[in-house]
């Protein structure tokens, strides 16, 4: 028998599991909580069902079904098999390759909630996305460009990511430069007749809040860019010019779900784990929307490396050296593979 509550559980034959920032931080005991030892990490999982509890069976799931599982509290994905709660699994359509679904739900659902629920992003609005090393930042660019039809300015840590953002259709893609960034943003915004945001007290507040996002680059360390759950949203309200929105990786000084306000600016963090606990219906519906966008070909997740389980240390080094420009995927079936990709 698998699991302490098999009625509400499923057993997954793991094919792939994304290597996320929290996994790496947990190995160093530098995440926001300490792991319960012994702990098998990995939470963004794709595979086939090899055990189906009563609740999943009632909802039509059967052995052999392809699924995505988000084990953000249970973890266990870097193993050949793992258990998952029924409320944390989604079917993978038959026409979709499992590897293409391995880096989808966590980042994209987080970004969708931030852009749709927090920012209420609308068509043709300007949004600056602070991308960091990829993950949720690239998901936000993909959604903003192809779902919301917004004008996106991307700010990235490396040239590889800057190129990828440009390929995704961003209005502008910038590699972070502390001395040049503000001037670059002012010039780009001027093309959309957005100017008042940068003047007077409002402008000073904007600069301070922009630093909440871009300060993550100043140490030059990949570790500071790994907190990909620290996805925040800043909304600048303008009476005549509309709105200017900043979203993406931020310095976690405001916490995961706190809100701080200065003048007409508001900052709010998005935690998918908190949404699962407090608003499970939204958690599910947002992920359902992402699955629909994915199946329709509206969004295309980015991954830059596929590494076998036996190469996971090399994969972590690849991320630490800032070579990644999207998610890194761990292959549980081909344990020796180490293949960079332009996907």
What does this structure look like?
- With 343 residues, the chain is α+β, with helices and mostly antiparallel strands.
- It is 31% helix and 26% strand.
- It has helices spanning 21-27, 54-58, 98-101, 105-118, 136-146, 159-167, 181-190, 200-214, 272-278, 280-296, 312-320; strands at residues 9-19, 44-52, 66-70, 81-85, 89-91, 126-132, 151-156, 172-175, 231-237, 243-249, 259-262, 265-270, 303-308, 327-331, 338-340.
- Strands 1, 2, 3, 4, 5, 13, 14 and 15 form an eight-stranded mixed β-sheet that branches.
- A hairpin with a 2-residue loop joins strand 11 and strand 12.
- Helix 4 (105-118) packs across helix 5 (136-146), helix 4 crosses helix 10 and helix 9 crosses helix 10 (280-296).
- The model is unreliable at 253-265 (pLDDT under 50).
Number of helices: 11
Which structural class matches the secondary elements?
alpha+beta
Low-confidence parts lasting 5 or more residues at pLDDT below 50? Answer: 253-265
Principal-axis shape = globular
* Alpha-carbon Rg, integer: 20 Å
Termini Cα gap: 39 Å
Instruction: Give the number of DSSP strands.
Output: 15
Mean pLDDT: 87
Binned, the helix content reads 25-40%
Give the H and E element order. EHEHEEEHHEHEHEHHEEEEHHEHEE
**β-sheet strand percentage:** 25-35%
Largest sheet: 8 strands, mixed
SSE map:
Blueprint (H helix, E strand, L loop, with lengths): L8 E11 L1 H7 L16 E9 L1 H5 L7 E5 L10 E5 L3 E3 L6 H4 L3 H14 L7 E7 L3 H11 L4 E6 L2 H9 L4 E4 L5 H10 L9 H15 L16 E7 L5 E7 L9 E4 L2 E6 L1 H7 L1 H17 L6 E6 L3 H9 L6 E5 L6 E3 L3
Parallel strand pairs: 6-7, 6-10, 7-8, 13-14
Antiparallel strand pairs: 1-2, 1-4, 1-14, 2-3, 3-5, 9-10, 9-12, 11-12, 13-15
Helix pairs in contact: 4-5, 4-10, 9-10
């Amino acid at each position: 028998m698998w699991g302490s509550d098999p009625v509400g559980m499923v057993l997954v034959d793991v094919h792939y599991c994304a290597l996320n920032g929290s996994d790496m931080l947990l190995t160093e005991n530098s995440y926001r909580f300490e792991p319960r030892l012994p702990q098998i990490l990995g939470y963004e999982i794709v595979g086939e069902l090899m055990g189906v509890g009563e609740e999943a069976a009632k909802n039509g799931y059967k052995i052999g079904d392809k699924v995505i599982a988000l084990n953000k509290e249970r973890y266990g994905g870097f193993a050949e098999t793992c258990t998952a709660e029924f409320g944390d699994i989604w079917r993978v359509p038959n026409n979709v390759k499992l590897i293409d679904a391995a880096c989808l739900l966590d980042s994209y659902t987080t970004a969708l909630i931030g852009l749709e629920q927090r920012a209420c992003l609308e068509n043709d609005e300007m949004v600056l996305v602070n991308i960091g090393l990829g993950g949720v930042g690239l998901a936000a660019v993909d959604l903003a460009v192809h779902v919301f039809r917004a004008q996106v300015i991307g700010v990235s840590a490396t040239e590889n990511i800057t190129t990828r953002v440009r390929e995704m259709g961003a209005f502008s893609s910038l590699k972070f430069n502390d001395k040049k960034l503000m001037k670059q943003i002012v010039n780009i915004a001027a093309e959309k007749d957005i100017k008042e945001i940068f003047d007077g007290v409002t402008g000073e507040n904007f600069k301070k809040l922009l630093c909440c996002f871009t300060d993550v680059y100043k140490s030059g360390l990949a570790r500071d860019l790994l907190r990909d759950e620290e996805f925040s949203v800043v909304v600048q309200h303008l009476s005549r010019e509309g709105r200017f929105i900043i979203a993406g990786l931020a310095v976690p000084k405001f916490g995961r779900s706190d809100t701080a306000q200065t003048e007409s600016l508001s900052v709010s963090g998005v935690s998918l784990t908190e949404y699962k606990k407090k608003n499970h219906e939204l958690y599910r519906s947002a992920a359902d929307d992402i699955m629909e966008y994915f199946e329709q070909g509206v969004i295309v997740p980015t991954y830059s490396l596929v590494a076998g389980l036996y190469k996971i240390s090399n994969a972590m080094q690849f991320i630490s050296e800032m070579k990644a420009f999207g998610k890194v995927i761990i292959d549980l079936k081909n344990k020796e593979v180490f293949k960079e990709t332009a996907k």
